[in-house]
Design brief:
By secondary structure, the chain is α/β, with parallel strands linked by helices. It has a domain of about 130 residues: FAD/NAD(P)-binding domain (3-Layer(bba) Sandwich), CATH 3.50.50.60. It has 9 helices and 11 strands. The strands form 3 sheets. It has a 6-stranded mixed beta sheet with strand order 3-2-1-6-5-4, with helices on one face. The chain starts with 11 loop residues before the first helix and ends with a strand. About 25% of the residues are buried. The C terminus is likely disordered. Bound molecules: flavin-adenine dinucleotide (FAD). Flavin-adenine dinucleotide binds next to α2. This is Flavin-containing monooxygenase. GO terms for molecular function: flavin adenine dinucleotide binding; N,N-dimethylaniline monooxygenase activity; NADP binding. Its EC number is 1.-.-.-.
Length: about 375
């Protein structure tokens, strides 16, 4: 394991130099990326246009006669061309694209009574995305009305419901349907998908859009967790009617959800304990409200929002690539995160406990609102 030293704070000129490097790399990657995008679209659109001129029809209008199931679908109501498990971003995005090419012979199976997946399940205080909303949304369905740079759970959930309604997906979603088994039947060349224990459907294609973060996963290695006498709940199963006011509360974990919960609930509770096993790299989340002026600009000139999205995409891509391919950029980022820790936590003992022991990029980093980054009240290890 790599040892990361508790470096002294960097001089301001060095810090500014690092920030400049990051900005410069972002600008270069945005320019290169967007130019590449333009070339790609010019080539593909030209080919598309030539095809229409030569053959007189649109390639997108694929005929879906060949998508009938091997058995006569008109006689069997339990057969589909495709079954999709889950109605989160993945399931809904796929369904919208299927509708777009005229393929309606599919069904989304959702175990909850509402769509949205992660964004329906996670309703804890402070729940929000940590990728800017202009990017964390469907490219084909931009939303000029995001209230914040990083939208809150309820807004993202409403956005997904809006998409399902706009793209007529509701009739293709079967709610309260918990898939328990999928079995490929060779002689039928179909999947047999069992749900709610003994009911089943067949499909030629099966797509898993079941995601990992809509399930509350309880630890089984904490002694006494099952017999704990106080109230307890999981972040992915938050009891929204529960009042935390004046209570002694313990949060187990310091991951992406805890980091959003703690700053929110610390305003209400009497005493708060945060139990941390592994510290993570923290990056300040530069969140702010989107102004009415910006919203109007995005609404009247959607191409501007598309351009902003393109810039965000390439900036994020460069960061991710620097982790994947271990570019020196990640050292600069790590240095800045250390500086952030120094400026936020003055106590060297506490800072030591909060310094990750792994290199940046091995595990995804955590983002927290810059105005929320108060020192934790109590840290147990
Ligand atoms: C607080 C939070 C913030 C996040 N922020 C970001 C971010 O900024 N950027 C990012 O890229 N990602 C983020 N994520 C990750 C997020 O989970 C994904 O981006 C995305 O929402 C996953 O969508 P999905 O459709 O693949 O899965 P999910 O949204 O998890 O949906 C899966 C669906 O499948 C259903 N399902 C599962 N099993 C079954 C079954 N057996 N039968 C029937 N239905 C089933 C579930 O009920 C659920 O509705 C965040 C996650 C959380 C919790």
């Amino acid at each position: 394991m790599m040892v990361i030293k508790d470096l002294p704070p960097i001089p301001l000129y060095k810090l500014l130099f690092y920030v400049l490097i990051i900005k410069l790399i972002s600008i270069i990657s945005v320019i290169v990326g967007l130019t590449g995008h333009c070339i790609y679209y010019t080539i593909t659109e030209t080919i598309h246009l030539i095809k229409i001129i030569l053959y007189g029809n649109d390639d997108n209008a694929i005929k879906w006669e060949n998508t009938k199931t091997l058995f006569d679908a008109s006689k069997r109501t339990n057969e589909y061309y495709m079954l999709i498990i889950g109605s989160g971003f993945s399931g809904l995005g796929l369904a919208i694209k299927l509708n777009e090419i005229g393929m309606f012979n599919y069904m989304i199976l959702e175990r909850h009574s509402r769509l949205g997946g992660t964004w329906h399940a996670n309703q804890y205080p402070g729940c929000a995305c940590d990728v800017v909303s202009n990017l964390y949304s469907f490219s084909f369905q931009q939303n000029p009305n995001w209230s914040h740079y990083y939208s809150r759970q309820d807004e993202i959930w409403k956005y997904l419901e809006y998409c399902a309604d706009k793209y007529h997906l509701m009739k293709n979603i079967q709610f309260n349907t918990n898939v328990s088994q999928c079995h490929w039947i060779e002689e039928r060349q179909q999947w047999r998908v069992t749900f709610n224990d003994n009911q089943y459907l067949y499909a030629q294609y099966l797509v898993g859009g079941y995601g990992p973060l809509s399930n509350a996963k309880y630890p089984d290695n904490i002694e006494g967790i099952r017999t704990f006498q106080g109230d307890q709940f999981h972040s992915a199963n938050w009891d929204t009617s529960y009042l935390l006011d004046k209570k002694r509360v313990a949060v187990i974990g310091t991951g992406a959800s805890a980091i959003q919960i703690v700053p929110e609930i610390q305003k209400q509770v009497k005493q708060l304990f945060v139990f941390q096993r592994t510290p993570g790299w923290i990056v300040p989340r530069e969140d702010r409200k989107v102004t009415e002026f910006e919203k109007k600009i995005f609404a009247y000139f959607p191409w501007i929002q598309k351009l902003v999205r393109g810039c965000l995409y390439w900036t994020y891509e460069t960061t991710v690539l620097s982790f994947v391919y271990r570019w020196p950029l990640r050292h600069v980022l790590q240095m800045l995160m250390k500086y952030n820790l120094y400026s936020q936590v003055k106590d060297p003992e506490l800072r030591k406990k909060l310094t990750p022991k792994f290199e940046l990029g091995k595990v995804s980093f955590l983002s927290v609102n810059s105005d929320d980054s108060n020192e934790p009240m109590s840290v147990g290890q």
